[in-house]
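Quick one, tokens below:
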């Protein structure tokens, strides 16, 4: 047993050294974990892709206002052609004049440049709609990242509780070593029995088992945090300072997503209206063919034309109206989803506020209980030295102090976790 206790003491001393060395470095904070997750988590890569897609959409929309160059070729044979027959009276001065008949085969090559003068603002609304879509897509990424942040909260506070539990158990372990030395001396002097020393040794081993379990829980939480942040967690995490302000407008990412989706649909409705406006464009066409612009010529010739053309879809059988109705219905769907989400959000805030109040009350009770248990344990320590109580009674008092201190720290960290959940859900963390 002495060899076991000595080995335990050595392990405890060695495990304390890296913790102290890590504390010399800056502890990992909760906000730093969020930042690392933004840099490394796969879900955040979607933002870059959405930005690239939006940039391509805007370039395509702007290209609609640039000159367009087109090439066309045609070769055909027709069964009949236009002919002119003149039956003039004898002696007329134009008697004997004949009008040539065009060939039945026609060939042409044309190169045309079109420049939009007015497109009904389609390009402008297309770019604006692309920007609105980008804003909504980026906000959708934030909604997905909210789940990542909630997972970080669970892993972070799990690690924080485990490391605080390790500290408490190490302190208790050191106290047990001190008491074991005193009891071993009293056993040697015949003041206590070997059973008293065995009781302390058993308590040391129980505490060591709890210490090992806390180390494993800390390692498990650290590994989860590493997967979420993409960074190695080698040191302790910092105790965050989180304050909450009840009430006030919520900046929940989902609510902002609904708002941006509705704004995008409003832009889409304006774009539908613009499609009903006339499109005016200038054009210039150069060609080579048979015939050219002279339809009576049977030789290949070059030619060109230039002008302004207008296209106006005056009647579309109600297609635009129905498309706008679809957009309006989609806005209603989003608005109803937003109302349902807001109601659920209010319920979640109410639950968290009540849980926070309960934990605050529990912490006050825990602090009073720790003070009482500590005083009782100090008296029991003195009584053990005087031989007025048994070692088992002293061990019980020591265990009561340990449980009270662990409950206090657990409730304090749980309170921080609830506050973090509240602020995360509100969009302020």
């Amino acid at each position: 047993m002495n060899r076991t206790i000595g080995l335990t003491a050595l392990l405890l001393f060695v495990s304390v050294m890296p913790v102290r060395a890590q504390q010399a470095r800056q502890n990992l904070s909760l906000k730093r974990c969020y930042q690392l997750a933004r840099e490394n988590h796969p879900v955040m890569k979607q933002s870059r892709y959405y930005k690239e897609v939006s940039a391509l959409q805007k370039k395509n929309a702007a290209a609609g206002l640039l000159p367009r160059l087109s090439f066309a070729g045609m070769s055909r044979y027709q069964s009949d052609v236009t002919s002119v027959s003149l039956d003039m009276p004898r002696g007329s001065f134009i008697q004997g004049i004949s009008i040539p008949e065009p060939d039945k085969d026609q060939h042409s090559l044309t190169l045309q440049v079109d420049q939009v003068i007015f497109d009904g603002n389609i390009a402008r609304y297309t770019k604006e709609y692309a920007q609105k879509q980008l804003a909504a897509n980026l906000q959708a990424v934030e909604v997905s990242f909210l789940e990542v942040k909630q997972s970080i909260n669970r892993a972070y506070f799990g690690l924080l509780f485990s490391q605080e539990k390790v500290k408490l158990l190490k302190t208790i372990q050191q106290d047990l070593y001190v008491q074991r030395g005193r009891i071993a001396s009293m056993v040697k002097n015949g003041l206590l029995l070997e059973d008293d020393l065995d009781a302390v040794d058993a308590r040391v081993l129980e505490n060591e088992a709890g210490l090992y379990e806390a180390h494993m829980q800390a390692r498990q939480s650290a590994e989860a945090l590493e997967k979420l942040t993409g960074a190695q967690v080698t040191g302790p995490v910092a105790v965050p300072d989180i304050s909450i302000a009840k009430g006030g407008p919520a900046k929940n990412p989902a609510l902002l997503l609904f708002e941006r989706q509705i704004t995008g649909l409003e832009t889409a409705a304006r774009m539908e209206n613009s499609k009903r406006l006339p499109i005016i464009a200038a054009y210039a066409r150069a060609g080579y063919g048979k015939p050219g612009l002279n339809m009576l010529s049977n030789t290949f010739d070059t030619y060109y034309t230039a002008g302004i053309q207008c296209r106006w879809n005056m009647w579309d059988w109600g297609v635009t109206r129905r498309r706008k109705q679809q957009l309006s219905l989609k806005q209603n769907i989003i608005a109803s989803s937003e109302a349902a989400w807001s109601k659920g959000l209010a319920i979640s805030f109410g639950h968290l506020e009540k849980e926070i109040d309960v934990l605050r009350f529990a912490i006050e009770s825990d602090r009073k209980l720790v003070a009482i248990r500590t005083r009782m344990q100090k008296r029991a320590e003195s009584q053990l030295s005087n031989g007025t109580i048994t070692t088992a009674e002293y061990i019980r008092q020591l265990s009561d102090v340990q449980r009270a201190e662990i409950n206090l720290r657990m409730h304090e960290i749980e309170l921080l976790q609830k506050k973090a959940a509240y602020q995360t859900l509100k969009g302020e963390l």
